[in-house]
Hints:
By secondary structure, the chain is an alpha/beta fold.
Amino acid sequence: xxxxxxxxxxxxxxxxxxxxxxxxxxxxxxxxxxxxxxxxxxxxxxxxxxxxxxxxxxxxxxxxxxxxxxxxxxxxxxxxxxxxxxxxxxxxxxxxxxxxxxxxxxxxxxxxxxxxxxxxxxxxxxxxxxxxxxxxxxxxxxxxxxxxxxxxxxxxxxxxxxxxxxxxxxxxxxxxxxxxxxxxxxxxxxxxxxxxxxxxxxxxxxxxxxxxxxxxxxxxxxxxxxxxxxxxxxxxxxxxxxxxxxxxxxxxxxxxxxxxxxxxxxxxxxxxxxxxxxxxxxxxxxxxxxxxxxxxxxxxxxxxxxxxxxxxxxxxxxxxxxxxxxxxxxxxxxxxxxxxxxxxxxxxxxxxxxxxxxxxxxxxxxxxxxxxxxxxxxxxxxxxxxxxxxxxxxxxxxxxxxxxxxxxxxxxxxxxxxxxxxxxxxxxxxxxxxxxxxxxxxxxxxxxxxxxxxxxxxxxxxxxxxxxxxxxxxxxxxxxxxxxxxxxxxxxxxxxxxxxxxxxxxxxxxxxxxxxxxxxxxxxxxxxxxxxxxxxxxxxxxxxxxxxxxxxxxxxxxxxxxxxxxxxxxxxxxx
Length: 575
């Protein structure tokens, strides 16, 4: 049940806030009497107190009334400090003083108007204040463009500003931050056209606007198909999703079922900045991504703990690199075209042995580092370690065992990539084809000519390129004829699906035949049973890796596999 207070939870219903910097009690009383009907007044009797208010509340202050004679700092110096801070630079300031000679200097330093002492009539003061605030807000509107053109909702910058202003007037009021996304919106645009996609966005925005008008709150279109909502707390948002889905599935937007997902950060911590609150709501929305039934995710203690861990891992990353906490493991790849499977190469896989958290799963830190931009540093660390290990094995065993390393999408857009890889190869005295470069299928499907050109340059240098994760859901078999690759690596889920249930391997057979047409050797990962090995060999697969042969091993343990290969090739060396 909504209360009267909740329905007023919107910017238009709030008084503008004015910071009055004045130490004289009588002047404070006069101005507060002038302003209290129309404005909320915050009084700061000293410059230091004024600066503290501005530092903590600058987003909610509409105007500063500044007396020049203060007990601790001259008003002109305070004005300089206000205008020197990027956060308060655009705050409008009206100077109040009996010194008419200070008017020019005040305006020069950034004051927008001047009120003489003794104060003129109340209506004159109010008129100047009203004009100044209106001018300032009009200026901000021009600079920030308050509304999203397509939907009419606030844009993100104004949305965050109004969210903070609402907090100032409803500090103790429980409030929720919500992120709302349309599932697979790009597919909607591709299938029905951009005009239809825009109609969906407008209809969704219209529903949110009407809801906020009835219940209080604000909404914005953050980007593409992502909307943000800041509103009074609700216990259950499933009804929202149902009503909104019904609305989108009717009328001009009723061509097909449109699925939504929502992330809610309930009862937000208002000491966090607005962007951080919606980051938490976005984390909650990600928990229901791809779910067939669940549409609303809540930010809870588990997500909070995960967020804290993510922050710690990012903070600990530089020390981990510096201290060698990241360890490179090697998973062997076996050639199954020979009479007896033979160790042919390896894949480098990184592990993190954290000094206080122990072994951390790559599934946790790799996506985190990809999102935060740290993956490049980690990739280079692994490349260098793998190249040095190849060198040691060559020296110790007389065997050149190629090792595959991952090259992430962001690496491929780095203009220093080729120089970096060349330096690593030359430093260790390796041939270029001894360090295999794995690039995921999804990177290729960005259809970026820049990326394709970079891969061609790497191949021209002598590197061999593996397409990793082929068959993970993005691919088209026609890609094989156009993309610059040397080896095709089937995704682990591709293999598992083929051997589960009805055990239908026809698609693997088709891929292997097509790869053979283009002369591409195929690696199958995630192989776990003798039956899988036998079937893949019969179908024509070249190389396999997986737990059937070995889990990923530290370099020292991996050397036992090299020693066995060496013994088979040269039995005399066993002694």
